[in-house]
Amino acid sequence: MGKKKIQIGLLGLGTVGTGVYKVIGRRGEEMEPQVGARLEIKRILVHNMKKERHGIDQRLLTDQWEDIVKDKDIDIIIEVMGGMEPAKSMILEALAAGKHVVSANKDLIAEHGEELLEAAQKSGTDFLFEAAVAGGIPIIRPLKQCLAGNEIDEVIGIVNGTTNFILTKMFEEGMDFQEALDMATELGYAEADPTADVEGLDAGRKVAIMASAAFRSRVVFSDVYTEGITKITAKDVAYAKEFDSLIKLLGVARNTAQGIEVGVYPMIIDRNHPLAAVRDSFNAVFVHGDAVGDTMFYGRGAGEMPTASAVVGDVIDIARNMQYHCSGRIGCGCYRTLKLKDFGEVKNRFFLRMQVRNEPGVLAAIANVFGGHKVSIERVIQRKAKAAKAELVIGTAAVKEYHMQDALKELGSMDIVSEVSSVIREY
């Protein structure tokens, strides 16, 4: 066995950092027999030393990075500051100094995870980041360890609580997008600037991390096609209900014979699919492996204590490794270099809603355009909106994205089509 006391440096004391402080303080005595050593936060790096922080031992605070990285007694560093810099430089410096690192920084890991993991391997240390995806839901460790005996071909998830809350309110309470977003902001689910959430960027970073872990091949955020929920309307919700379905913002990663597909976009899913039951700010990740079949991981995807739970779980894992002198045993895992499929080659089914002239021959002309671009129509609904115009809803078979985009471009140039109001993929 190793040390009797393992000391920790905490970088950041915002929502997640405060949660980590609480969990380690609350469960310190229980952790000692679990780990074989006492876990203790020795120093906390903060930006503003003068800020009043209730319930925090002020003697632990410092605004000097050197107080942590040069302290030989600190074994583990927890980074919960967020952002690219100085977080990246600090993590690299900590790893080079032989310190283990736990991070919840999805932005950094989705872009520079490979560099950080290689630095950890070089120094024989652990770099763990369970909290970077889906908050308190264990998913990175299961993908890397529990499901390591599987060839995983699909990971689909609701990994952004803000957008799931908004869509739930639109479906269950008849709110429009802006009204639901305002409620999410008021309740603290959405940031003052919600762009990263509602445009799919936050989910895209998480999907890049999950795809890398699941398929054992590097995927970065720039590889992920992203589309948000800002264009979803009450009419789209009504049609989804009519089809006995819901709309969810899904992160989709598939490992196919032609390459890895990765994207984030709203999808219409059948009400009987397990992900359809995931409401409000909850997250869920659906995984398919060749041996295990279908599995789903469900829970709180963000927040002070759920995210702190994942961070502290990583800390305990590292502490156990230290006690048995086996650090660095679970590293990058991306030993493959798989092709990434161009998103234009990805096949999806589509729901289309458009405003057209209300006259004979319109449907035939539109069907002719689709046929010319290899788009097969499975369902047509025509509703009379006004005397001169009608609303046309079309459901398609699975079609390559670039064929659909070409068809939409031609439709947009036709006089008989005044507007393509909605384009939503169907699962």
From TrEMBL:
The keyword Zinc belongs to this UniProt entry's keyword annotation: no
E.C. number(s) listed in UniProt: 1.1.1.3
Membrane-spanning residues: none
Entry keyword set: Amino-acid biosynthesis, Methionine biosynthesis, NADP, Oxidoreductase, Threonine biosynthesis
CDD domains named in the record: ACT_HSDH-Hom
Catalysed reactions listed for this entry: L-homoserine + NADP(+) = L-aspartate 4-semialdehyde + NADPH + H(+)
Ranges where the ACT domain occurs: 351-425
Family: Belongs to the homoserine dehydrogenase family.
Name the record gives this protein: Homoserine dehydrogenase
